[in-house]
Design a protein that fits this description.
This protein is an alpha/beta fold and 128 residues long. The protein contains 7 helices and 5 strands; from the N terminus they run βααβααβααβαβ. It has a single domain, classed as Rossmann fold, CATH 3.40.50. The chain is globular, with a radius of gyration of 14 Å.
Length: 128
């Protein structure tokens, strides 16, 4: 199983992003490849990122409207309590909050992460 990181969504939705081509490919693969899923924490981080970048409510809504057809409910992956235990340990080691959640989930499921994030790649197998 491979988990999509937030960098995929950010890159795929912005044609000026340096990762646009690759990120778009991965986001498109989400619908076709049964091995790729997206953690709910990835969606939460993306929404908070839009808020932090001062997207208006209407801009956030229209972004989600564009993104929703690409992410079926069957592709969403939740976290367990043990994921949060491991994530808290990773945070003590200096891993950021959302990076720790996807890393802990990947470790728990023996999965890789589709990301260019170096901190995540230090802890689990990463593909980019």
């Amino acid at each position: 199983m491979r988990l999509l990181d937030t960098v995929v969504i950010v890159g795929a939705l912005n044609v000026r992003d340096k990762h646009y081509r690759k990120a778009s490919k991965y986001l498109d693969m989400l619908a076709m490849d049964n091995d790729i899923v997206i953690p709910i924490s990835t969606l939460m981080e993306f929404d908070l990122l839009m808020k932090a970048r001062n997207y208006t409510d209407d801009e956030r809504r229209s972004t989600w409207i564009e993104l929703a057809p690409k992410i079926s409910p069957q592709k969403l992956l939740g976290h367990t309590a043990s994921t949060f235990v491991r994530a808290s340990e990773l945070q003590k080691e200096g891993v950021g909050y959302f990076d720790s959640l996807i890393t802990a989930l990947a470790q728990e499921l023996n999965s890789s992460v589709i990301t260019d994030d170096k901190d995540i790649a230090k802890c689990v197998e990463a593909e980019w």
